[in-house]
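Section 5.1 Outputs to date
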Amino acid sequence: MHCPFCRHTDSRVVDSRVQEEGSVIRRRRQCPECNRRFGTVETATLSVIKRSGATEPFSRDKVLIGVRKACQGRPVTEDDLQRLAQTVEESIRSLGQAEVDAHEVGLAILTPLQHLDEVAYLRFASVYQAFDSLADFESAITLLRAETDAGYVRGH
């Protein structure tokens, strides 16, 4: 770490603080050469490997865009969408990998979306899982009903 004032190649950490639920670390540093203090921000990068093989940084906004489309016209608030996107990001980061397949991101969206709104879940699943026929919808609905009924039996 170079000092931004004198360009000295070393610095000493004076204080560290974890923010944003552990995904960001703010450090207060001091240069041993000029004794001036400065701050740094460290974030863990997370990359998504797309089907084409290209990689790009994980984007909570992209999750929001896809889920917002699926929830269009549904009784879902912007706060609900923000919480879902945060849940998805936490789920992906908890895998402990620097790179994840786009497929993993889609899977991480399905479960919280199913709990948020079943119609939005079916919309998203139909695109994500490339439903080709009415039979695909019927099997997804049958599975959804079975899971919902099982949830009611367990008392959820």
